[in-house]
Write the structure tokens for this entry.
Amino acid sequence: MQVDQRPIAVFDSGLGGLTVVRELRRRLPCEDIVYFGDTARVPYGTKTPETVLRFTRENCAFLLRMNPKCIVAACNTASAVCLPGLANELPVPVFGVVAPGAAAAVEAVGAGGLIAIIATEATIGSNAYKNAVFQIDTRPAVVQVACPLLVPLVEEGLDESNAIVELTLERYLGPVRRLSPAVVVLGCTHYPMLRGALASFFGKSVVLVDSASSTAEAVASTLGDSGVLVGAARNGRLHCYVSDNPRRFQTVGSRFLGESIHDVVRVCPEELACGRLSLGRTRASA
Ligand code: DGL
């Protein structure tokens, strides 16, 4: 087997992409991962496609300096708006979360079923998930719902035990539940954190497709098939970079990652935009 020591690069609009990193580390524990969270410019989900594309290009340009073997767009909004087009501009393979999530939904839906896609406004506006489903199979019915309030609720640490979450789900998703979807696609980095709340809201018979987990599966199998994994038993390292507030990234992000985050380096967003960089190191104890 070939050995490729280069890291896997992952980016997101903020800390939500750590749900994808968590799944990647479960499947590929020996791989080094370098993560960039654009915490100064989050959210992407309410921005125009032009702005999301500009930010995404800058994030990828930054990560390419780390000499990665591939880039994973963990952000659903960035994946929906910028892929597959952006992949043609980059010198390394790029994985998004939409195609694996859509494929998992089609596999789970069965004949004549309804797929509900829940995501940010920009992801829903792009129709990327819906188009990806129909590229595989035109038979399922698809309904799409933007749920913008769920991102801040998750970052506040609210879950199924909280009445605000219940009310918010009812408000956004009550009409969808009445349509009895067979599959619900969690088309946003934050939604896997609400898996329990969504499972009790929709009931046991509904399959929840977690695009973070489907994406990690796709990355692991593609890199494995291409023979570019590290090929040695070792603990892969995680290096994180953010464009603002490294301390909040560490505290809130650890919940998303399921482990502590040790070192986070801040990248100045203005310098990110113009290609110059100055990095400041921050620790949890700082
Ligand atoms: N990471 C974004 C996504 O998965 C959610 C947060 C945002 O709006 O930037 O779409």
